[in-house]
Specification:
Blueprint (H helix, E strand, L loop, with lengths): L5 E5 L4 H13 L4 E8 L10 H8 L3 E6 L1 H15 L10 H20 L3 E3 L8 H12 L4 E3 L10 H10 L12 E5 L4 E5 L28 E8 L2 E5 L2 E2 L2 H13 L5 E7 L5 E7 L1 H17 L2 H19 L6 H14 L4 E8 L2 E8 L7 H4 L11 H9 L1 H10 L2
Parallel strand pairs: 1-2, 1-4, 2-3, 4-5
Antiparallel strand pairs: 6-7, 7-12, 8-9, 8-13, 9-10, 11-12, 13-14
């Protein structure tokens, strides 16, 4: 093994990272371990006692960095403004959090003079790519340690036995069914019965949203104000990005909004099944699409969809800190400056719809679109337009008959 003196570990306090701390000390000649945890809105209960747990496992320090507001403002909002949605339904909750976590981890490593970074991602998943791509872009001089690609342990039982042999306490157990990842935007669920796509998700899968069948019988309406493709107010109350998301999470979760069950293509090549709950985010995306429909003409909408699709894969594949990211964000922001207005959304039994929408930049004109009498559109003009629009088809057919 190469000589490593000080490692900054992305630490969650879960089973994997609890085992990683003693494993690092044993494998890398008693190196110093700095535990790092990013607070991206996963919930206060996950942070309680985290520092004590890290120190008890063998870490010399534990840095908990509050990134909640920055996460929503600088990562979630720009991504949603681009229209990015992975494979039609996944709102990128896990993927969007990785670059800000990796950046903060690198900043801690440089601050404490570490010579290595460590993560607990498995060799099967996307997160190893996301973290290490960010590390490479931000601090290529730092060594990266990925225990799941190095150690011989293969299961939760192996990790539990490893900790028990060293008298290191853990709240994890062999009976844990699901693998979950939570932040301010969403919570993901994998494992258990979900590993067989023929199995419907049981009620035990969902933790954030009410079952739509049990949701209120009466719909709830919210007025969402949008500026530059960002939600800035709800029901007339101006809110910070994080506070707006938290409010919408509470409102939408009560109506069962935001559940997705998808079998997706991982970057490493395999398919995986995940159930995602993104209540507030689903409301935000619905509101933004409502304004998009009003303000973008056909070529702009087509370009926005292309930018969004490209940005989707950039985020999913962990390429945030790249020139391509800057270019796509610039294109997205150029379109976002016109995405201003208000949308009234209806939440009911797991669904959210844009019921009313208006924008000062709207291209919709009732005078032109009406089926009634109008004084602004001469329908005879359409004939010349159609003849020119279909001219190439006309010429091709005439030539074939010669």
């Amino acid at each position: 093994m190469s000589k490593v003196k000080k490692v900054v570990l992305a630490y969650s306090g879960g089973l994997d990272t609890s085992a990683i701390i003693p494993w690092l000390k044993e494998t890398y000649d008693d190196c110093e371990i700095i535990a790092f945890c990013a607070d991206v809105g996963q919930g206060a209960e996950e942070l309680v006692g985290l520092e004590e747990k890290a120190l008890a496992s063998g870490a010399s320090e534990c840095h908990i960095v509050d990134l909640k507001e920055e996460f929503v403002k600088d990562y979630i909002y720009p991504t949603m403004a681009s229209g990015a949605v992975y494979e039609g339904t996944y709102l990128l909750g896990t993927a969007m959090a990785r670059p800000i976590i990796a950046k903060a981890q690198v900043e801690v490593a440089l601050k404490v003079g570490a010579d290595a970074l460590c993560h607990g991602c498995t060799g099967k998943g996307n997160d190893q790519i996301r973290f290490e791509s960010c590390f490479a872009a931000l601090a290529p001089e730092l060594q990266v340690i990925a225990p799941w690609r190095e150690w011989e342990m293969e299961s939760r039982e192996d990790l539990l036995d490893y900790l028990a042999e060293r008298n290191i306490e853990t709240t994890a157990s062999a009976t844990k069914i699901y693998s979950r990842d939570a932040n301010a935007w969403h919570i993901s669920h994998e494992g258990g019965e979900l590993e067989n796509p023929w199995n419907a998700p049981s009620k035990g899968v969902w933790t954030l949203t009410v079952d739509p069948e049990d949701a209120p019988e009466k719909p709830e309406y919210l007025t969402i104000k949008v500026e530059n493709a960002r939600v800035v107010a709800v029901d007339g109350v101006e809110l910070s990005p994080y506070d707006a998301l938290m409010l919408l999470n509470d409102k939408a979760a009560a109506h069962g909004v935001g559940r997705v069950d998808i079998t997706e293509n991982r970057t490493v090549g395999m398919k995986s099944r995940g159930c995602y709950e993104t209540p507030g985010g689903t409301v935000m995306v619905t509101a933004l699409r409502g304004i998009d429909e009003l303000v973008h003409d056909k070529p702009a909408r087509k370009w926005r969809d292309q930018v969004g699709q490209e940005f989707t894969h950039l985020v999913y594949d962990g390429r945030w800190f790249t020139p391509l990211c800057g270019s796509l964000l610039a294109a997205s922001e150029a379109l976002a400056k016109d995405v201003n207005g208000e949308v009234v959304v209806k939440m009911y039994k797991g669904q959210v719809t844009a019921e009313q929408k208006r924008s000062p930049n709207s291209l919709y004109s009732e005078e032109f679109a009406t089926f009634g009498d109008d004084n602004v559109y001469n329908q005879k003009h359409a004939e010349g337009f159609i003849r020119l629009y279909s001219l190439s088809s006309r010429i091709r057919t005439l030539n074939s008959k010669k």
